[in-house]
Amino acid sequence: xxxxxxFIFGALIGSFxxxxxxxxxxxxxxxxxxxxxxxxxxxxxxxDNVPILSYVILRGRCRSCGAGISARYPAVETLTGLAAxxxxxxGGLTAHALLAFAFVCALIVITFVDVxxxxxxxxxxxxxxxxxxxxxxxxxxxSWPASLAGILLGGGLLxxxxxxxxxxxxxxxxxxxxxxxxxxxxxxxxxxxVPVTLMIASLAGTAVGVTLMVMxxxxxRTAIPFGPFLxxxxxxxxxxxxTLIAWYLGIAQAA
Length: 255
Ligand SMILES: [Zn+2]
Fold this sequence. Notes:
Elements: H1 2-23, H2 53-57, H3 72-91, H4 95-117, H5 122-139, H6 144-169, H7 176-189, H8 193-216, H9 227-254
Helix pairs in contact: 1-3, 1-4, 3-4, 4-5, 4-9, 5-6, 5-7, 6-7, 7-8, 7-9, 8-9
């Protein structure tokens, strides 16, 4: 019963995340006006704004004009609901689990905005750095020095990579948004999570990049947004960070 309630809570938050994903890149308020159909501008009635269910009942079409509604809306709601269940199972009903959920929500918004617009909104990453550090001060998990070191390492590492790439090739490879995002990840998870996140993100990014190149014959220089991969890496670090670090240290010692 609790899991169902938590899933519904997560899906409702996911509904709000959809609004953020849609409005943050165009600098619109996420509160006003109320949700409206992007096609006919008709306000969406509360009974048509039930996460996941409304999409199914309306068969993915606006009630007023019949325009198709992107399947991404229910997908984000489902994903957020599952994320809420996952943090509850991993951490129980604690302040830390709530914080972890907020962190995953920020990653979900960042992922989809980056896919859509190739930007990572400062409106999330910069306050995120502050919230992550403040939470470390209050909850002590990670400790505040580990959080501070995470901000510096996360921001510094990618800044170094970006500068090095620019120096070597004369091209901009990595955006400032990625740098601020990894600093935020370091603030929430501590410095130990930064190399874990970066490693998973690089592996996943390379795998997807190579696949795209083979399938679509994409030019090597075509930039793929890196934010979603950092978000995946950070999610792995959040749930399995200790295991991954232990595994890595095991290999390092064996070698
Ligand atoms: Zn409409």
